Amino acid sequence: xxxxxxxxxxxxxxxxxxxxxxxxxxxxxxxxxxxxxxxxxxxxxxxxxxxxxxxxxxxxxxxxxxxxxxxxxxxxxxxxxxxxxxxxxxxxxxxxxx
Length: 98
Description:
alpha+beta
């Protein structure tokens, strides 16, 4: 979660993980949307989606979709301990998820 408001470049924004301000409903709304997006585009491997969410109305916009490893991937991998690059490479080579 980027702490700074929309308009501040994500590369210059403070990032925290796990997210600190999303309600369970907001989290699940964005998660469900992410799954729909990756299925629509047929993404296999790592993908990150950046959202802008209005916390007062739950209105959200998809700012960008990166179907590749990125700086955000490195941060997410470090924060969660999940080896995103390793898993993405295995998927690219045709290894199915367990």
